[in-house]
User: Fold Metal ABC transporter ATP-binding protein from Promicromonospora alba.
Amino acid sequence: MTPANQLPANQPPAIEVSDVVVRYGEVVALDGVSLSVASGRVTGLVGMNGSGKSTLFKAIMGTVRPDTGTVLIDGTAPVAARKQGLVGYVPQSEDVDWAFPVSVRDVVMMGRYGRQGLTRRARHVDHAAVAEALERVELTGYADRQIGQLSGGQRKRAFVARGIAQDARILLLDEPFAGVDKRSEATIVRLLRELADDGRTVLVSTHDLHALPRLADEAVLLLHRVLFHGGVAEALRPDNLAHAFGLDVLDRDLDRGSDRDRDRDFDREGSA
Ligand code: ADP
Ligand code: MG
Assistant:
């Protein structure tokens, strides 16, 4: 295994994010993010709510356009890479309309659209790929259910199956463990490890720090910018986590013993 941060020579990073800034009006979601994500590894993206994880995924997908900075996927611009089917995406639950009238099989078949041309007529090879992907996520018996009728963990597995059916070289998963049962979590972790061992690039955001050592080869701590990128054990050190989760401000003020300063910092955070 290559040490974190050191890419094998002659292998370009699968995802190259350079100095990306994304603003939503007054809010600066990403404030100069630079990040290289290597293939053949699982990279964990860790950060508190609002730290910019989903925005970073959307910038990599090309669905959010950076104000400044660039993203390259295997050397290609994000929108083109997405159209080529290079990037598979498992959105966070909040970004999906679960009432949409599609079956689990339909969701997985969406991973094949890029290969079906304008007619979107599924051929035998597409049906076979969908069946195999459903098998791998252990949802074969649920293929005809409406997607919203599944449990949280099953829904996530359905979207992972979409990425598998797509045969995407790069997989982005936004909080796949949120609201997920242990069995689904274990299945997803195992699949992501298999996909990385197969040479794919897996970037997965999570605030489930317990899952991180089993899941990821390396970790990125995000708070509007990259605070840390390296080995998982080092990422999980209390000083690094405190920084990423915004606790160091509080610690400093407690050390100083100044309740007034601390309250002021809380107020400022609360009104941000
Ligand atoms: P995370 O996924 O880490 O929770 P997000 O990328 O969703 O972070 O959000 C980063 C910041 O951008 C937050 O302050 C959030 O409120 C804001 N934000 C995200 N999406 C939008 C949007 N569509 N419009 C306005 N603000 C947004
Ligand atoms: Mg998010």
The pocket of magnesium ion (ligand 2) is lined by residues 53-54, 92, 174 (CB under 6 Å). The first helix runs from residue 53 to 61. The CA atoms of residues 42 and 193 lie 7 Å apart. The radius of gyration is 20 Å.
